[in-house]
Amino acid sequence: QAVVDFERLGEHAAAFQGHDVGFCCLGTTRARAGADGFVRVDRDYVAQAAELARAGGCKHFILQSSRGANAQSRFLYLRVKGEVENLVQAVGFDHCTILRPAVLLCRRQESRPMEWIAQQFLGAVARLFPTAYSVPVEMVARAMVACALQPGEGKVKVLENGAIHELGKA
Protein backbone atom coordinates (compact mmCIF):
# COMPACT_ATOMS: atom_id res chain seq x y z
CA GLN A 1 0.00 0.00 0.00
CA ALA A 2 1.32 3.42 -0.93
CA VAL A 3 0.04 6.53 0.81
CA VAL A 4 0.07 9.59 -1.44
CA ASP A 5 -0.61 13.28 -1.02
CA PHE A 6 -3.18 14.11 -3.68
CA GLU A 7 -2.23 17.77 -3.52
CA ARG A 8 1.24 16.70 -4.72
CA LEU A 9 0.28 13.63 -6.71
CA GLY A 10 2.99 14.18 -9.31
CA GLU A 11 5.62 13.59 -6.62
CA HIS A 12 4.24 10.07 -6.14
CA ALA A 13 4.56 8.85 -9.73
CA ALA A 14 6.56 5.82 -8.54
CA ALA A 15 3.45 4.49 -6.76
CA PHE A 16 1.75 4.25 -10.17
CA GLN A 17 4.55 2.32 -11.89
CA GLY A 18 4.30 -1.29 -13.01
CA HIS A 19 0.58 -2.00 -12.67
CA ASP A 20 -1.43 -3.61 -15.47
CA VAL A 21 -4.83 -2.57 -14.10
CA GLY A 22 -5.88 0.55 -12.23
CA PHE A 23 -8.98 0.76 -10.06
CA CYS A 24 -10.40 4.15 -9.13
CA CYS A 25 -13.21 4.71 -6.64
CA LEU A 26 -12.03 8.11 -5.44
CA GLY A 27 -14.68 10.62 -4.52
CA THR A 28 -16.05 12.98 -1.91
CA THR A 29 -19.22 14.96 -1.39
CA ARG A 30 -19.99 18.58 -2.01
CA ALA A 31 -21.23 18.84 1.59
CA ARG A 32 -17.88 17.66 2.91
CA ALA A 33 -15.49 19.41 0.53
CA GLY A 34 -17.48 22.32 -0.90
CA ALA A 35 -18.08 22.74 -4.62
CA ASP A 36 -14.45 23.51 -5.48
CA GLY A 37 -13.16 20.66 -3.33
CA PHE A 38 -15.64 18.25 -4.88
CA VAL A 39 -14.44 19.16 -8.38
CA ARG A 40 -10.79 18.88 -7.30
CA VAL A 41 -11.26 15.40 -5.81
CA ASP A 42 -13.79 13.83 -8.16
CA ARG A 43 -12.40 15.23 -11.42
CA ASP A 44 -8.91 16.63 -11.08
CA TYR A 45 -7.37 14.01 -8.74
CA VAL A 46 -8.96 11.15 -10.68
CA ALA A 47 -7.77 12.49 -14.05
CA GLN A 48 -4.25 13.02 -12.73
CA ALA A 49 -4.16 9.54 -11.20
CA ALA A 50 -5.26 8.09 -14.55
CA GLU A 51 -2.49 9.97 -16.36
CA LEU A 52 0.12 8.74 -13.86
CA ALA A 53 -1.19 5.18 -14.14
CA ARG A 54 -0.97 5.26 -17.95
CA ALA A 55 2.54 6.73 -17.82
CA GLY A 56 3.44 3.94 -15.39
CA GLY A 57 2.36 1.22 -17.81
CA CYS A 58 -1.27 0.64 -16.84
CA LYS A 59 -3.19 -0.93 -19.71
CA HIS A 60 -6.72 -1.15 -18.24
CA PHE A 61 -8.28 1.55 -16.08
CA ILE A 62 -11.51 0.80 -14.23
CA LEU A 63 -13.39 3.86 -12.99
CA GLN A 64 -16.35 3.98 -10.65
CA SER A 65 -18.47 6.88 -11.84
CA SER A 66 -22.20 7.44 -11.30
CA ARG A 67 -25.52 6.74 -12.89
CA GLY A 68 -26.54 9.74 -14.95
CA ALA A 69 -22.99 11.02 -15.51
CA ASN A 70 -23.12 13.63 -18.27
CA ALA A 71 -20.57 16.35 -19.01
CA GLN A 72 -23.42 18.58 -20.24
CA SER A 73 -25.58 18.24 -17.12
CA ARG A 74 -26.77 21.33 -15.26
CA PHE A 75 -26.16 19.46 -11.99
CA LEU A 76 -22.62 19.78 -10.66
CA TYR A 77 -22.35 16.17 -9.46
CA LEU A 78 -23.43 14.59 -12.75
CA ARG A 79 -21.48 17.12 -14.84
CA VAL A 80 -18.22 16.46 -12.95
CA LYS A 81 -18.71 12.69 -13.24
CA GLY A 82 -19.28 13.07 -17.00
CA GLU A 83 -16.24 15.32 -17.36
CA VAL A 84 -13.96 12.88 -15.54
CA GLU A 85 -15.24 10.00 -17.66
CA ASN A 86 -14.22 11.96 -20.77
CA LEU A 87 -10.83 12.88 -19.31
CA VAL A 88 -10.05 9.29 -18.33
CA GLN A 89 -11.04 7.99 -21.76
CA ALA A 90 -8.78 10.58 -23.41
CA VAL A 91 -5.73 9.26 -21.52
CA GLY A 92 -5.50 6.42 -24.06
CA PHE A 93 -5.62 3.18 -22.08
CA ASP A 94 -5.83 -0.06 -24.06
CA HIS A 95 -9.05 -0.72 -22.14
CA CYS A 96 -11.15 1.67 -20.08
CA THR A 97 -14.13 0.38 -18.12
CA ILE A 98 -16.54 2.85 -16.55
CA LEU A 99 -19.04 1.63 -14.00
CA ARG A 100 -22.10 3.81 -13.40
CA PRO A 101 -23.75 2.49 -10.26
CA ALA A 102 -26.97 3.90 -8.87
CA VAL A 103 -27.15 4.72 -5.14
CA LEU A 104 -24.44 2.80 -3.31
CA LEU A 105 -25.69 0.75 -0.38
CA CYS A 106 -23.04 0.71 2.34
CA ARG A 107 -22.23 1.53 5.91
CA ARG A 108 -20.42 4.82 6.39
CA GLN A 109 -18.25 5.98 9.22
CA GLU A 110 -19.52 9.54 9.05
CA SER A 111 -23.08 10.52 9.73
CA ARG A 112 -25.18 11.36 6.66
CA PRO A 113 -28.79 11.32 7.90
CA MET A 114 -30.49 11.96 4.55
CA GLU A 115 -28.35 9.36 2.81
CA TRP A 116 -29.13 6.88 5.60
CA ILE A 117 -32.87 7.45 5.10
CA ALA A 118 -32.49 7.03 1.33
CA GLN A 119 -30.49 3.84 1.81
CA GLN A 120 -33.14 2.38 4.11
CA PHE A 121 -35.87 3.16 1.58
CA LEU A 122 -33.86 1.96 -1.42
CA GLY A 123 -32.75 -1.15 0.44
CA ALA A 124 -36.42 -2.07 0.84
CA VAL A 125 -37.18 -1.23 -2.80
CA ALA A 126 -34.20 -3.36 -3.85
CA ARG A 127 -35.95 -6.45 -2.53
CA LEU A 128 -38.64 -5.93 -5.20
CA PHE A 129 -36.54 -4.31 -7.94
CA PRO A 130 -32.93 -5.27 -7.22
CA THR A 131 -31.27 -3.44 -10.10
CA ALA A 132 -33.46 -0.35 -10.40
CA TYR A 133 -32.18 2.25 -7.96
CA SER A 134 -29.32 0.92 -5.86
CA VAL A 135 -26.41 -1.48 -5.62
CA PRO A 136 -24.41 -2.79 -2.66
CA VAL A 137 -20.79 -1.61 -2.72
CA GLU A 138 -19.62 -5.23 -2.47
CA MET A 139 -21.36 -5.97 -5.75
CA VAL A 140 -19.64 -3.01 -7.42
CA ALA A 141 -16.28 -4.30 -6.15
CA ARG A 142 -16.94 -7.79 -7.51
CA ALA A 143 -17.97 -6.32 -10.87
CA MET A 144 -14.77 -4.28 -11.01
CA VAL A 145 -12.67 -7.38 -10.36
CA ALA A 146 -14.60 -9.31 -13.02
CA CYS A 147 -13.86 -6.50 -15.51
CA ALA A 148 -10.16 -6.74 -14.67
CA LEU A 149 -10.10 -10.50 -15.16
CA GLN A 150 -11.98 -10.36 -18.47
CA PRO A 151 -11.69 -6.90 -20.06
CA GLY A 152 -13.62 -7.94 -23.17
CA GLU A 153 -13.59 -6.35 -26.57
CA GLY A 154 -13.35 -2.69 -27.39
CA LYS A 155 -11.41 0.20 -26.01
CA VAL A 156 -14.15 1.67 -23.77
CA LYS A 157 -16.92 -0.17 -21.98
CA VAL A 158 -19.60 1.59 -19.91
CA LEU A 159 -21.55 -0.54 -17.47
CA GLU A 160 -24.83 0.76 -16.10
CA ASN A 161 -26.38 -0.42 -12.83
CA GLY A 162 -28.08 -3.52 -14.23
CA ALA A 163 -24.86 -4.77 -15.83
CA ILE A 164 -23.00 -4.11 -12.57
CA HIS A 165 -25.49 -6.33 -10.76
CA GLU A 166 -25.02 -9.09 -13.33
CA LEU A 167 -21.23 -9.01 -13.18
CA GLY A 168 -21.27 -8.67 -9.41
CA LYS A 169 -23.23 -11.91 -9.08
CA ALA A 170 -20.71 -13.93 -11.09
Automatic annotation (TrEMBL):
SUPFAM superfamilies: NAD(P)-binding Rossmann-fold domains
Domain of life of the source: Eukaryota
One example of a Gene Ontology biological process annotation: import into nucleus
Residue stretches making up the NAD(P)-binding domain: 4-150
GO CC field: cytoplasm
GO-annotated molecular function: catalytic activity
Assembly notes: Monomer. Forms homodimers during oxidative stress. Interacts (via N-terminus) with elongation factor EEF1A1 (via middle-region); the interaction is direct and competes with EEF1A1 binding to guanyl-nucleotide exchange factor EEF1B2, thereby inhibiting GDP for GTP exchange and reactivation of EEF1A1. Interacts with nuclear transport receptors XPO4, IPO5/RANBP5, IPO7, IPO9 and KPNB1 as well as GCN1L1/GCN1 and LRPPRC probably through their HEAT repeats. Binds NCOA5/CIA.
Name of the protein in question: Protein HTATIP2
Organism listed in the record: Pheucticus melanocephalus (Black-headed grosbeak)
